[in-house]
Write the structure tokens for this entry.
Amino acid sequence: MIEGRGVRVIGDPVLRRKAQTVTEFGEGLKQFAMEMYEEMIDADGIGLAAPQIGVLKRFLVVGMPDDETDMLTLTAYVNPEVIDKAGSCTMEEGCLSIPGVREDVERPERILLRWQDLDGNTREKWFDDLEARVIQHEMDHLEGVLFTDRISPARKLALKRRLDQISQRA
């Protein structure tokens, strides 16, 4: 677990700030990735962005369940950017930073992502379905955006009291 960090909840100002580009690669970044994986797994999540633990860097981790083995495939994405997208899909989302709240969110169904791996190598790949959604959700955190920013004003108003209660714990 990341010493003294923990997952920040809505109301913490760090969740509304834009993350900065990662410029240093090496053992420190690899160790940070391992700590983020542990934090994500301990919180029963499948994705975690660095700002959610108070680190304003363009870095996120995703743990996708393998259908055959029930094991998580863990991947770190450094400085990710969506360079193309296709389709549209609405699915229910939740967030470790907004515990107990789940809402339908519309997002592109497929994305072409460019990112750097933990060694600084540039990668590019199409993602779809749940994996594309998780990556997009976590990338929103890098911009200071929460999934509740993507729901209708009526739904946001209906959730206001609940979100305010969570915010008071920040």
Observations:
- The mean pLDDT is 94.
- The first helix runs from residue 27 to 42.
- The helical segments are 27-42, 129-142, 153-167.
